[in-house]
Specification:
By secondary structure, this protein is an alpha+beta fold. It folds into two domains: 86 residues; 220 residues, 2-Layer Sandwich (BirA Bifunctional Protein, domain 2). Helices cover 42% and strands 21% of the residues. The chain is built from eleven helices and nine strands. A seven-stranded mixed β-sheet has the order 1-4-5-9-8-7-6, sandwiched between helices. Strands 2-3 form a two-stranded antiparallel ribbon. α1 packs parallel to α4. The radius of gyration is 44 Å and the shape is rod-shaped. The protein binds 3,4-dihydroxyphenylalanine.
């Protein structure tokens, strides 16, 4: 009897493939209405002497059935794990997802290039504050409170007589206050004006230049700036100096550079203001105006970058469009 049940069970277990089938078999033998359970119930009706013998016999069968089911359950579980591992095998030799690397912003690249060139001419590099006060941004540059030149620069005013510098020219004063001639510096940095169109952004970059010594002339200024244009753009670049007005230089000029606009038309673009330092500015820093002269310039970096990189709208630089930025 016991052998028969166990043999049948082993036969049943031979080709089961998953837990479900195993559970069906389990209930066929030891479920509530399973074969072994029925045997158990039948014991109740036996005479007392037989009950004991039969009871231990059925118990042994039950144990044996449970053991067989248990060992088969373990077998199926480990088969299932192996199958899963096989299906989800990781190919460690596959190339992973690469993190995309950032790059230096085109304006920073252009600034580095400009700084390198002026360093080559023997200029020293200085940097100054973006939050300025009225004295450095205007007053000491010969732009008094009621001067119409203040209208040329749409200023972002802050509290306590502070403002966001509208140009890098305040650095001329800061440098001269702390140093005696000869001076030969450039000062790159951010400047701010309330202005936005294809050639203006509210924040942009300038490089200020200042050279003070005995006998500095407009010819020196022109030659340095022309030389810079050749070195920066290449010898084919066309430049033009145009008379202009700035309160802190006299005479003053603007430098235009030939470029091609969106419609491929050849145009001139103003890229910098310059001139011979106005003696009134020297008086603010107590320089001897009978002994020293100087020249100064302030160039717009975004504009130089537009011409050099062939970009037709200055605002592209600050839209953070990766498709645009990744070109550089
Ligand atoms: N600061 C002027 C501006 O932002 C540019 C400029 C003009 C700077 C003449 C100079 C200069 O140093 O000499 O419009």
């Amino acid at each position: 009897m016991a052998d028969k049940i166990i043999n049948n069970l082993m036969e049943d277990l031979k080709d089961i493939k998953n837990k479900n089938e195993l559970m069906n078999i389990k209930s066929k033998y030891i479920g509530k209405k399973g074969l072994v359970s029925i045997l158990m119930q039948e014991i109740k009706n036996l005479p007392v002497e037989e009950k004991k013998i039969r009871g231990s016999e059925v118990n042994m069968i039950k144990k044996e059935v449970e053991n067989l089911i248990d060992s088969n359950l373990k077998r199926i579980e480990s088969e299932e794990i192996n199958l899963k591992l096989k299906e989800q095998e990781i190919d460690v030799s596959l190339p992973g997802k690469l993190n995309s690397l950032g790059s230096v912003h085109p304006i920073s690249q252009i600034l580095d290039e400009i700084i390198d060139i002026f360093e080559g001419y023997g200029f020293q590099i200085t940097e100054g504050p973006e939050v300025e006060n009225d004295y450095y941004n205007f007053e000491s540059l010969n732009i008094p409170k009621d001067h119409p030149a203040r209208d040329m620069q749409d200023t972002f005013y802050l509290e306590n007589n502070n403002l966001l510098r509208t140009h890098t020219s305040p650095m001329q004063i800061r440098i001269m206050e702390k140093n005696s001639p000869p001076i030969k510096i450039i000062s790159p940095g951010k400047v701010f004006r309330c202005d936005s169109d294809i050639t203006h952004t509210p924040m942009f970059h300038q490089v200020e230049g200042l050279l003070v010594d005995e006998g500095v002339s407009f010819a020196n200024l022109k030659s340095i700036l022309n030389r810079f244009c050749y070195d920066f753009f290449g010898k084919k670049i066309k430049t033009r100096f145009r008379p202009s007005y700035f309160p802190f230089t006299e005479p003053s000029a603007e430098l235009d550079i030939e470029w091609k606009n969106k419609k491929d038309e050849t145009k001139w673009m103003e890229v910098l203001g310059c001139g011979i330092v106005n003696p009134k500015v020297f008086e603010f820093v107590k320089y001897d105006t009978s002994k020293y002269t100087g020249f100064a310039f302030g160039m717009g970096i975004e504009r130089l970058a537009m011409i050099k990189l062939g970009i037709t709208d200055i605002r592209y630089f600050y839209q953070n469009d990766l498709k645009f930025l990744k070109q550089f």
